[in-house]
Write a structure and sequence with these properties.
There is one protein chain. The protein is mainly β. It has helices at residues 34-38, 67-70, 127-130, 221-226; strands spanning 7-12, 15-16, 23-25, 30-32, 43-51, 56-63, 73-78, 89-92, 102-107, 110-111, 115-117, 122-125, 136-144, 149-157, 165-172, 180-182, 190-197, 200-203, 210-213, 216-219, 233-240, 245-253. The strands form six sheets. It has a five-stranded mixed sheet with strand order 7-14-13-9-10. It has a five-stranded mixed sheet with strand order 15-22-21-17-18. Strand 13 and strand 14 form a beta hairpin. The two termini are 22 Å apart.
Length: 256
């Protein structure tokens, strides 16, 4: 879904889906609830999405048989970056031996990033991608090139303490782009941005290590490469003039 737009409503064959019950809006589109999908009898369906700019887009769904529900698994993920359950999600697929057997992996109505471990025949969903989801239940559909679909239910929790402010973004060292964080800067400003490096707190330089435009803070490649730790997360801290602090979590990954 284009950046900045919201879903006003979703209709299916004339019936309007209930927001929060039948579907949940995500950062990339919408997650259709497993309960709603499970009530559909065999047949073809069209979902019509009305966006906040007035335009509509349509998605076709074909309900064929029970082959999907037979393969449904359940897995969980905690989006709080300090949790023990903040980890990549692994789920074994019965119909895929290599990544070449997978046509697409879909959450709701949008494709998501993934990797595949051929030794265990497991689909791997990166934690930095899943951290963008709100707490709730989601259906992940794996569309195989043989025409079959395997699905599993992902339950996302959030064990963050009340009052703690944080956000996670990936930094893909294979194809790096500078991550952006939205901060509540309407009535305050960023005082400092710091990071712990070998037990020492180091301050980043405004302009060269990070920039601010409106309410968006962008961490620059110079800082991200200087504190780079492949395969792990590095926490930067944005300290605001009103005394609040935001943890800016960078998950370093290498993914084609």
């Amino acid at each position: 879904m284009p950046n900045g737009l919201k879903i006003e409503k979703i209709e299916s064959n004339g019936a309007v889906l209930t927001a929060g019950t039948d579907y949940t809006q995500t950062s990339t589109g919408a997650a259709i609830s497993a309960d709603w999908l499970g009530r559909l009898p065999r047949g073809s369906y069209k979902l019509t999405l009305t966006l906040s700019d007035g335009k509509t887009t349509a998605i076709a769904i074909a309900v064929t048989n029970s082959s999907v529900s037979e393969n449904v698994q359940n897995t969980s993920f905690d989006r709080y970056y300090k949790s023990e359950k903040y980890a990549d999600v692994h789920t074994r697929l019965s119909g895929a031996n290599t990544s070449e057997d997978i046509r697409d992996v879909v959450l709701g109505l949008s494709s998501i990033d993934y990797t595949f471990d051929s030794s265990t025949r497991s689909l791997i969903l990166p934690r930095g991608v899943l951290a963008q989801l709100r707490a709730g239940s989601y259906t992940i559909s794996v569309e195989l090139k043989n025409g079959k679909t395997e699905a599993f239910t992902l339950t996302v929790s959030d064990s963050a303490p009340t009052g703690e402010s944080w956000a996670v973004e990936e930094y893909n060292t294979f194809s790096p782009s500078e991550p952006k964080f939205t901060l509540p800067l309407t009535r305050t400003s960023v005082r400092t941005v710091t990071v712990q490096n070998n037990g020492v707190t180091e301050a980043l330089n405004a302009g060269s290590d990070y920039t601010i435009s409106g309410q968006t803070l962008t961490l620059k490649k110079s800082a991200l490469e200087r504190y780079r730790k492949d395969g792990t997360a590095v926490v930067f801290s944005a300290d605001l003039a009103d005394g609040t602090a935001y943890a800016l979590v960078i998950d370093y990954v290498k993914r084609k």
